[in-house]
Amino acid sequence: VIDALAVALIAASLALAAWGLLMALLGRRPGMTLLAGLGVLEVGALVQAVVAVVVMISGDRPEQLVTFLLYLVASLVVAPIGALWMLAERSRWGNVVGAITCLVLAILVVRLQQIW
Amino acid sequence: VTVTRSSRHWWSATAGRPTASGPGRVLVAVYAVFAVSAGARAGVQIATRFDEAPVPYLLSAFAAAVYVLATIGLAARGPAARRLAVVSCSIELAGVLIVGTVSMLNPDAFPDATVWSFYGRGYGFVPLVLPVLGLLWLRHTARPAGALRDDRRP
Q1: SS3 category, A69
Q2: Is A107 within 8 Å of A41 (Cβ atoms)?
Q3: In terms of Cα–Cα distance, which of A3, A2, A116, A111 is closest to A63?
Q4: Which of B28, B33, B45 to mutate against chain A (most A CBs within 10 Å)?
Q5: Number of H helices and number of E strands within chain A?
Q6: How does pLDDT run across A7-58, given as a tens digit for each residue?
Q7: Interface test with A, best of B26, B30, B140 (most A CBs within 10 A)
Q8: Within 10 A of B147 (CB to CB), how many other CB atoms are there?
Q9: In contact, A80 and A42? CB cutoff 8 Å
Q10: Residue B134, C-beta contacts closer than 8 angstroms, at least 6 positions apart
Q11: Which element (helix H / strand E) includes B75?
């Protein structure tokens, strides 16, 4: 919806995913950096969703409205669910779960951009 | 020392370690993503344009169901869950190989992509790798818990 925000979200997601994989390679447990990063990504996704809803209310609609809305909802729930699943794993694999959460969010934002 | 084993083969093991922790936590996460995305995709396809390509869309729905069952099988504990995971991962592997091959030989049969067409090319070939990893993980965790204390990593 807003190109600059989407690009920032995708870049931040990929950077955090790389961080998570690095921490996993180093054998660390999932830490505050990854958790806080997911929080920041969630705020970004929220801003994007609010803007999209406001634009839709003001009359402009994507062609595939249902698909767009499903992706929009997914972009809001993926970080919280991924964070919980990550915290449930107190080993290096928790970092991988966090990294995958970031990658999924990046893909969702790319798809949102493609649809609208 | 005699080791009592519940079964000769890993795929029919009734005991074994939980499958949803360690690397399994990652596996369950990826399976859940595929269950949700394949399910949502199939739902939208069938609800909005079923007439265009009924076979691929039904195949999408079938694939989604297999992913849901595999996710549950890997996430839950116990012999029934393990059996569910082994069966659904096997069907998944067969599905991606069969559908992948058919779509390569006869691309016209798949006007709209499913998760499994072209061996999951549209999804970075993750659908091809996932069942292999799932079955390897099920084999790895089929041994009883006491047998591999030394195998644990932080």
Answers
A1: helix
A2: no
A3: A116
A4: B33
A5: 4, 0
A6: 999 999 999 999 999 999 999 999 999 999 999 999 999 999 999 999 999 9
A7: B26
A8: 11
A9: yes
A10: B27, B31, B70, B74, B85, B89, B92
A11: helix B54-75
- CA pair distance A108, B146, nearest whole angstrom: 42
Asked if B22 and A91 count as a contact pair (C-beta separation under 8 A), the reply is yes
- Is A34 within 8 Å of A19 (Cβ atoms)? yes
Encoded amino acid at A69, one letter: L
A104 touches chain B (CB under 8 A): yes
Query: What's the pTM?
Result: 0.91
Nearest to A16 by CA among A78, A91, A90: A78
Nearest of B132, B114, B131 to residue B123 by alpha carbon: B114
- Residue B98 burial by Cβ neighbours in a 10 Å radius (0-12, 13-18, 19+): exposed
Compute the 3-state secondary structure of chain B and give helix, strand, coil in percent, each to the nearest 5. Answer: 75, 0, 25
What's the CA gap between A28 and A89, in Å, rounded?
12
Residues A106, A79 contacting (CB under 8 angstroms)? no
Model confidence pLDDT, tens digit, residues A69-109: 999 999 999 999 999 999 999 999 999 999 999 999 999 99
Could you identify the residue written with the tokens 């599905």? B95
Q: For residues A64 and A49, what is the distance between their CA atoms, to the nearest angstrom?
A: 16
Whole-angstrom Cα distance, residue B78 to residue B16?
8
Which residues of chain B have a CB within 8 Å of the CB of A29? 154
- Write down the ipTM of this complex: 0.94
A74 and chain B: CB distance < 8 Å anywhere?
yes
